[in-house]
Recover the amino acids of this structure.
């Protein structure tokens, strides 16, 4: 069935966005729309120009019989700054302060628009990195990891605080909680991570960094490689000390939990880490 160009462009863009970082052949689109490959190439040029103009990603075309098109979603610097400012405005609310200097973020993590921004921001940081797996810890980091995995088209794995019979054999490590200075345990199924895999760790909130440090130790137990660690928000460090020093934060939250309770949110080190 012959398809009009306007319809082709809409469906082609939708398909590429639903299959990021996947090589889609010209033959596939040609047969899908009943159009010549030359027409498909012209359509892809329009899509490529549009994504570049709006700073929403990069469309690469690969020539040859086995070639095609690959869409990589990411933010331009301007769009990333706009998304960061949006997160800062959403978090900058004194009513979010919880005991112990923690910040209430569950409502934001439950919003699809916020999750899309966070997922694409983190995917932007690792756009040119070789990544195999996204890792997070239960429970609040799961929606963030899922969003990142969607934009990077990579699987995500969940580190558990206690073993589940449905996980099968697991590998466990003990780690020191950076906030309460207690020994805790985390576990990961042996089937979820392969030796040599390149892993990106994501989470919702970092205070002392103990959970992130524990996941790093777990990655080492699998003989896998840590590519980087990124969190939605970074809070005040416990006693001014962190157990990790190589983590990227989208926003930084200065929380005062004394007689005067207040929250001051500002951009984290994401912009300087990714774009400078």
């Amino acid at each position: 069935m012959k398809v009009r160009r306007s319809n082709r462009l809409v469906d082609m863009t939708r398909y590429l966005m639903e299959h990021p970082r996947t090589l889609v052949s010209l033959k596939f689109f040609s047969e899908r729309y009943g159009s010549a490959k030359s027409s498909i190439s012209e359509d892809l040029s329009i899509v490529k120009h549009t994504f570049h103009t709006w700073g929403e990603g990069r469309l690469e075309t690969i020539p040859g019989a086995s070639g095609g098109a690959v869409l990589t979603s990411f933010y331009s610097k301007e769009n990333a700054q706009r998304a960061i400012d949006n997160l800062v405005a959403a978090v900058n609310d004194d009513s979010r302060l919880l005991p112990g200097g923690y910040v209430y973020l569950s409502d934001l993590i439950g919003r699809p628009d916020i999750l899309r921004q966070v997922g694409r921001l983190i995917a932007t940081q690792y756009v040119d990195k070789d990544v195999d797996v996204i890792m997070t810890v239960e429970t609040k980091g799961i929606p963030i990891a899922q969003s990142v995995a969607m934009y990077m088209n990579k699987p995500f794995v969940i580190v558990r605080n206690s073993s589940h019979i449905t996980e099968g054999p697991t590998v466990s490590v003990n780690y020191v909680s950076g906030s309460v200075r207690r020994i805790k345990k985390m576990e990961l199924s042996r089937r979820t991570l392969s030796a040599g895999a390149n892993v990106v760790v994501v989470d919702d909130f970092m205070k002392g960094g103990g959970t992130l440090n524990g996941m790093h130790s777990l990655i080492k137990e699998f003989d896998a490689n840590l590519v980087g660690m990124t969190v939605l928000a970074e809070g005040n460090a416990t006693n001014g000390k962190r157990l990790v020093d190589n983590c990227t934060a989208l926003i930084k939250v200065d929380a005062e939990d004394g007689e005067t309770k207040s929250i001051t949110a500002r951009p984290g080190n994401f912009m300087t880490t990714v774009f400078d």
Notes: Residues 77-275 form a domain with the Rossmann fold fold (CATH 3.40.50.2020).
